[in-house]
Specification:
It contains two helices and no strands. With 76 residues, the protein is mostly helical. The radius of gyration is 20 Å and the shape is rod-shaped.
């Protein structure tokens, strides 16, 4: 799954420093307690963002159909 690997890459510097200092127990803590909720939040955020972009594109399409012109959608 793409999201999980991306999440690991994002957190890898912190992950490495914590494992060298605190050993396997700390790594276990990160793997079990920290990453799953973060991954879940990230997936939800990405899906919400995609929904917003879709609705933006639909609005832009509707506007362009009404006025017979094409608009560039500003990215916020």
């Amino acid at each position: 799954m793409e999201v999980s690997t991306a999440m690991h890459h994002d957190a890898s510097p912190h992950h490495n420093t914590s494992t060298t200092r605190n050993g396997p127990a700390q790594q276990c803590f990160w793997e079990r307690c920290v990453f799953p909720p973060l991954r879940h939040i990230r997936v939800r955020a990405e899906s919400l963002l995609q929904l917003n972009l879709l609705s933006l594109e639909k609005k832009a399409a509707a506007i362009s159909i009404v006025t017979r012109r094409t608009f560039i959608v500003p990215w916020f």
